[in-house]
Write a structure and sequence with these properties.
Strand order of the largest sheet: 4-3-2-1-8
Oligomer: single chain
Structural class: mainly beta
Largest sheet: 5 strands, antiparallel
Number of strands: 8
Radius of gyration: 14 Å
Shape: globular
Number of helices: 0
Number of domains: 1
Distance between the termini: 23 Å
Length: 122
Amino acid sequence: MICNAVDQDSRYGGYWFNVRLDGNVLVTAVSTDPAIGDRALYARDNAPGFSKAGPNKVQVACEKEGKGSHLRLWLNGQLAADTHDPRGLPKGTVALAAGQYNDGGDPVTVDFTKFTIGQISG
């Protein structure tokens, strides 16, 4: 999942929330501005809530905090990543992406049964 997504020259910038098949998670700030560059903000092996038997419910929250952003990811209702980016990224939209690196493994299937975007309140 990507928030603050910006498409520039066929490359998406924004906050990328990656969940791997082994339950590892990575939150990255990806900038299309070469002066800013890409930054890994959070990495965790065997994230809580991940089910290797699947399916997994993935939720993310991107909240503006001053010049920065508060970023969280839940797997099946359990907080799996919680980080801050003090520098922030330009405002963008949201996006969904699924992919597989060519590691010779079995193909990955991703099904989106429900996708909602909402404002965080309270």
